[in-house]
Amino acid sequence: MHTLEQLRDGSLAGAVRLRLSCGLTEFPPEIFDLADTLEILDLSGNALSRLPDALPRLTRLRILFCSSNDFTVLPAMLGACPQLTMIGFKSNRIKEVPATALPAALRWLILTDNRITALPASIGRCTQLQKLMLAGNELRALPEALAACTALELLRIAANALTTLPAWLLAMPRLAWLAYAGNPCSAADEAAARAGAQPAPIDWQQLQLAQRLGEGASGVIYQGQWRQAGSAAADAVRAVAVKLFKGAITSDGLPACELAACIGAGGHPHLIAVLGEVTGHPAGAQGLVMDLIDPAFHNLAGPPSMDSCTRDIYRPGQRFTLATLLRLAGAVAAAAAHLHSRGILHGDLYGHNILHTDDGEALLGDFGAASQFACQGAQAGALQRLEVRAFGVLLGELIERCEGAPGTDDVIEPLAQLRQDCVQDKAAARPLFEDIARRIAQADQAWQLRICSCR
What we know:
Layout: H1 4-8, E1 17-19, E2 40-42, E3 63-65, E4 86-88, E5 108-110, E6 131-133, E7 154-156, H2 167-170, E8 177-179, H3 184-196, E9 201-203, E10 207-215, E11 219-227, E12 237-245, H4 255-264, E13 274-279, E14 287-291, E15 298-299, E16 320-321, H5 322-341, E17 344-345, E18 354-356, E19 362-364, E20 371-372, H6 378-400, E21 402-403, H7 409-423, H8 433-454
Helix pairs in contact: 3-4, 5-6, 5-8, 6-7, 7-8
């Protein structure tokens, strides 16, 4: 965090990055003194309602954050900023997005938690757009011009007022990560799923929380003890994980939709088991009680960075044996097939949402972007093939990091072909998860035969 004093006394001369959060009501003109070097400007957490028309003078500006301010209109001059590729105006009061506000070079647009009712058709000019975050607005429809954004890979439109998911959206060539829960178009499916799910109620008084295990956008996870009702025996106390939801809109959607999807997913060897739903919390918070995961499990990857945009970050030098790759890929494909059979689109099928052991055991977690749908019909198949592309990206990342043994081309090549089939632009031609799991099992069988023949 920087200060106005540093900006004004010249000590930030030559800065590439500037972050100011100090109750600003006006844009500090001294920022223009950094025009020759400034690339990242973060003015989040102030009281700004406008930006100067001269903002394009910051000719090197690539990334602009103005979240948690008082904007009611997305500033129109943003479209004239020559190198601006990432814009974040989360949690303002924006109602209007002018046609001129979207730069042609835009890759990442964050307008989560505003009051936007419509997007301009000019968004179709943003042909490099990869990531579009619109959860928590009042959108009634998506502009058909968005179909021209053929590079779009991640779309968050949960908690809006959408009455339909257009067919052209689900056929977009690179769309792989979609969240749309909490809209009128999904309300009936969500209601049916809730009616069919009967989670065990676990009273808050039966739980004792210990250390915090982690925190995400939607909630906080604690390690805890669960004493089953009516028993004082020590063996009736079970170590568990407890997730308490924050209750506010997240970048992915509504915590209540996440909770419903977790419960609706049911049991599967490659999902984290849900033991019950928290009831009787003194503050009315919603929560889940889940299996406590063995500490041998760790995240497969880190989330995307500002530069990678839609691609996870793996540890430098991270490698997988072929046996580990096959086990990982097979587990994730099986989990995804199970979810789709129950009408659940995970929406965030990424390495950073997969817990794994070094030998390839895997658990798919984080349902914050999950959406529910009717299991039958053309839309179900289209949603599955959309998520298949996300799996193909993941499989490619694993193959890139695989330590292939000499003479294993007959195993690697079918996996590489599977990856290509999953990410092809023609969405309708992609395989379904059951076929994917079968093809991975065949590759695994070939590998096992190879091992046996070498003994």
